[in-house]
Amino acid sequence: MVPASATNMTRGGAVDAPLPATSVMVDLRNFTPNFDAGKADSEGVNEFCHFLARFYGASLEACLMASSSDRRADSEAIHTSCTGDGVLVVFFGPWHFAQGLLSGFLLEAALERLCAAHPKLAAVPSVGFGVGIESGEVSRVRAGQQGAGFATVIGHCINMSARMEGLTKVLSDAKVIVGDSTVELCAEALYGETFHALRARERAAPDDSARLAIHDRMNTMNRELCVTYLDRYNLKGVDQPSPLYRPALTGRDLGTPRLDTLLAALVKGDASHLADVRQMLAR
Fold first, then answer.
1. Angstrom distances, CA of residue 270 to CA of 45, 247, 267
2. Phi–psi pair at 260, nearest 5 degrees
3. What is the DSSP letter of 82?
4. Among candidates 264, 268, 262, 254, which has minimal Cα distance to 69?
5. Angstrom distance (rounded) from CA 82 to CA 231
6. Upper half-sphere CA count for residue 215 (Cβ side, 13 Å)
7. Cα separation of 64 and 60, whole Å?
8. Whole-angstrom distance, CA of residue 20 vs CA of residue 22
9. Quick one: average pLDDT of 132-140?
10. Which of 66-75, 77-86, 94-103, 116-125 has the highest mean pLDDT?
11. Strand partners, 148
12. What pLDDT is attached to residue 241?
């Protein structure tokens, strides 16, 4: 795990001030039945644990790739932890939301390949995955002395990403769900306007022609962000239904102009980083 803080920890613990961040929650589907069906290897280890290790590795590799440029300059730009049969990754820094969106594309590609290659056992549900991504603020919570303590991160966006990940269990065509805050931050950074502002203008538009023009602009931004609007969903702990998105099924293939343009923007035009991202997507 990347160290949570370079400062000394106190025995009673400490909580850092909230920081802007994007949370990525990844879950391995059908862990328990596959673990129960697994046999011990020559060292007595359940064979399915080896697949879990590969699942952890693929998830970590995808998220480290998404954060590559900023992580080289800041060792605290990413927090990673395991959550039993899943993974929590939190991106920090000024470009956290773009890294979160990019991780969604990388995770979907990497985990689909990994799960598809896992042998199907008779009468045992196939392995799968779900990912939830949302932006907001988080605080680091630390206890113990540096080098002999533990740390975690807490925040509303982490709860939201967990609930979005859970929603993928009932939305068969959405293995990755991206939250409204992440999409809005990406839209504002890349296009200078948000869907929230466009929806407000649409409601206040004087006639159908003006409303259609604004609606067309929202559709264009959806396409350029390579996301598909799912709907508004009621999530636990949220007063109003939340607009949710998923990576567009038609915009994931390398060579699609809008995906190529988006990837270049998400890595800030870093040619080396872009080449590595494209290589990972093309595996």
1. 42, 22, 6
2. -60, -45
3. E
4. 268
5. 30
6. 8
7. 6
8. 7
9. 96
10. 94-103
11. 145
12. 92
* Among the listed residues 184, 175, 143, the one whose alpha carbon sits nearest the alpha carbon of residue 4: 143
C-alpha–C-alpha distance, residues 11 and 145, integer Å: 7
Tokens standing for residue 258? 């809008």
Task: Please provide the DSSP assignment of 5-69 as one string.
Answer: -SSPPPTT-EEPPPEEEEEEEEEEETHHHHHHH--B-TTS-BHHHHHHHHHHHHHHHHHHHHTHH
pTM attached to this predicted model = 0.90
Place of tokens 């533990």: 150
Q: What is the CA radius of gyration of the chain?
A: 20
| C-alpha to C-alpha distance for 255 and 45, rounded to whole angstroms | 42
Partners of 132 in beta bridges: 25, 177
**Any idea which architecture 14-282 has in CATH?**
2-Layer Sandwich (3.30)
Contact criterion met (CB below 8 Å) for 151 and 5: yes
pLDDT band at 152 (very low <50, low <70, confident <90, very high): confident
Two tokens, residue 246: 């998923």
Tokens of 134: 């949302």
Secondary structure E strands in the chain: 14-15, 19-29, 78-82, 86-91, 128-145, 148-154, 176-179, 227-233, 242-247
Distances, alpha carbon 30 to alpha carbons 125, 126, 162, 171, in Å: 6, 7, 17, 16
pLDDT value, residue 181:
97
Residues in the chain: 283
**For residue range 157-173, what is the model confidence (pLDDT) as tens digits?**
999 999 999 999 998 78
Give the integer Cα–Cα distance in Å for 157 and 21: 8
What does the domain layout of the chain look like in residue ranges?
14-282
| Gap between the terminal Cα atoms of the chain | 26
CB neighbours of residue 26 within 10 Å: 29
Rounded distance, CA 117 to CA 54, Å? Answer: 12
CB 131 within 8 A of CB 168: yes
